[in-house]
Amino acid sequence: QLQLVESGGGLVQPGGSLRLSCAASVFTLRYYAIGWFRQAPGKEREGVSCISSTGSTTNYADSVKGRFTISRDNAKNTVYLQMNSLKAEDTAVYYCRPCHSEGGTVYKAFGSWGQGTQVTVSS
What are the distances in angstroms from CA 111 to CA 18, 27, 96, 117? Predict the structure, then answer.
């Protein structure tokens, strides 16, 4: 049984936008800091963004600052990633999982990786 399910990915032109959703079906999301991660072809997974349980604190990788916004709606048990001004380098499979941040880097706190959602920025 999946606890977190990513959705909202797709094919978009450079400069376009997408909004990813991370929905919890088993645990109550409001208790956790939740982050977005991505893995591009030939690269390791990297932390993209992390938001605290209340939404009061957010962290972003330098590569997405000013373009991506993480948010959450605990009443809906969902975390979002608004992606604007998309670039070809943003092409990756995006995952969400509990997170923590150290020295500006976002890490997965716990949990196994799910299937993710594919984001493709054409160029």
Answer: 25, 12, 10, 17
What's the confidence (pLDDT) of residue 2?
59
53-84: per-residue pLDDT in tens? 999 999 999 999 999 999 999 999 999 999 99
CA 96 → CA 13, 14, 123, distances in Å? 23, 23, 26
Q: What is the dihedral angle through the alpha carbons of 42, 71, 67, 96, rounded to the nearest 10 degrees?
A: 0
Quote the distance between the C-alpha of residue 29 and its chain's center.
14
Residue 87 phi, psi (nearest 5): -120, 165
Pair 71, 29: CB distance under 8 Å: no
> Greatest CA span in the chain, whole angstroms?
39
Pick from 1, 6, 2: nearest CA to 116: 6
The one-character DSSP state at 65 is: T
In our burial notation (b when 16+ CB lie closer than 10 A, e otherwise), range 71-86 reads: ebeeeebbbbbebeeb
